[in-house]
Amino acid sequence: MRTSLSLLAGALLAAGPALAHTDIYTTTLHPTSGTFASGSGSATITIDWDDATMRVQADFAGLSSPATAAHIHCCTTNPGIVSGAIVATTTPTFPGFPTGTSGSYDVTFSLDNAATFNSAFISNTVFGGNGSLPGAVTAFGIGLNAGKAYLNIHTANVPSGEIQGFLALAPVPEPATYGLMALGLLGVGAAVRRRA
Ligand SMILES: [Cu+2]
């Protein structure tokens, strides 16, 4: 009994990280240095590597002029510094992205669809890709994990981008959850042993 419970707990601990096939990236959108730049927002990018999907959620408000385009740039030369990247996702903008000074967006894309990305990003080999769609997806994921991808909302007043934010990998809750489950099972095992 004790051995099987310990094995089960160990298996659950080992399974925790392996179950994390979804990566969540978040950011706070803040005004750029553009003269008219104002507004705020947030964005969450959820990538399910098993289903090969990318969910893009964004909320923003307070822009000085209507949004003209929004997309993710990747991959900057240095983490957190806007330089060296190109548009990685659909150009010129995420399909159906709001064009007002405020809005909300929530669309899920297929990573198996070339239209999800800028064709110039797919053919690019500078960021670690090999010119193919799968290579671009891998390069995009590496760029996201390295803090080298940012979501940018361009506007009429600030064509270079009025609000933007670098995406950062959010902590994965699963391992802690499974750790607690394992501790609980170890506790059951101890109780069983005491009774015996
Ligand atoms: Cu842009």
Describe the structure in brief.
The chain has 196 residues and is of the alpha+beta class. Helices cover 29% and strands 30% of the residues.
Number of domains: 2
Proportion of beta-strand residues: 25-35%
Q: What string, H for helix and E for strand, traces the elements in order?
A: HEEEEEEHHEEEH
What is the fold named in CATH at topology level of the largest domain? Answer: Immunoglobulin-like
Mean pLDDT: 88
- Report the biggest beta sheet as strand number plus sense, adding barrel if it closes: 9 strands, antiparallel
Q: Return the CATH class of the largest domain.
A: Mainly Beta
- Number of helix segments? 4
Low-confidence stretches: 10-17
Describe the global form: globular
Give the CA-CA distance, first to last residue: 10 Å
The CATH architecture of the largest domain would be Sandwich
Attached small molecules = copper (II) ion
Rounded to an integer, what's the Rg over CA atoms?
A: 21 Å
Provide an overview of this structure.
With 196 residues, this protein is of the alpha+beta class. It folds into two domains: 1-20 and 174-196; 22-171, Immunoglobulin-like. Helix content is 29%, strand content 30%. The chain has helices at 2-18, 119-123, 133-145, 174-195, and strands at residues 22-31, 40-48, 53-61, 67-74, 86-87, 103-110, 149-155, 163-166, 168-169. Strands 1, 2, 3, 4, 5, 6, 7, 8 and 9 form a nine-stranded antiparallel sheet that branches. α1 (2-18) packs antiparallel against α4. The site of copper (II) ion has 6 residues, from β4 and β7.
Protein traits:
196 residues, 4 helices, alpha+beta, 9 strands, binds copper (II) ion
